[in-house]
Amino acid sequence: MNPTACILVIGNEILSGRTQDVNVQYIARRLAEMGISLREVRIIPDIRPVIVSAVTEARAAYDHVFTTGGIGPTHDDITSSCVADAFGVPWAPHPETFELLEKHFAPGEFNAARQRMATLPVGATPIRNPVSIAPGFTMGNVHVMAGVPRIMRAMFEEIAPTLRCGKPVTSRSWHAFGLYEGGLAEKLEKIQDRHPDVDIGSYPFHDHDGHGGVALVSKGLDADEVAQVAQDIRQMIEKLGFTPIEGEPAHKA
């Protein structure tokens, strides 16, 4: 089986609706490409017991845990110290990171708040940050990254070559205008029953002109079986009297 993963999105700003999360989509797509099965995503607040509990549970249940958010210099950036608590180790200045950030800031600007970003769980390995210097870190199977999307993406790509991967997921899709889920559910279920190892998803859409339909996506580890399912779906669409279009619609909602 492919390695498994969980994403912990940490931040009150996500739960309040103030900030829209875009990191999950990026990580999920990259994990699929790398053959790592994303099994769970949690969005949790900046509350110490909640973060410690979530990290503790996730690292025991999955091969990889990715966290985003809460590693900046302010009082509510508590992810790093919470990970230390979850592993039962001290949270202490990391000498190499401390030196790196001290050299980065102008004299007098590396204040106590910024020094928090150089404080890591003892035993953690920094994740290089080519965008804004202050690193994330890996502790065991937990990879702690920034919440700012461009920084998170840079950090993820830094650790990607080090991750234990599996067989990449293959995906094929069709969509049809004017076809809706109620008209295909029974036939689609029969295809799914014949291919239990392939994940078949049905996604209604409407384009910008108000025209709607359904997109049907098949995903799995066996490329030949995924191709067979895609062929079955195409034939099903045609038999229902609609025109199958390969790929997903350009504009969907």
TrEMBL record:
Signal sequence coordinates: none
Top-level division of the source organism's lineage: Bacteria
Domain MoaB/Mog residue range list: 6-166
SMART domains per the UniProt record, alphabetical: MoCF_biosynth
InterPro entries: CinA, FLAD1_M, MoaB/Mog-like_dom_sf, MoaB/Mog_dom
Protein name as it appears in the record: Competence/damage-inducible protein A
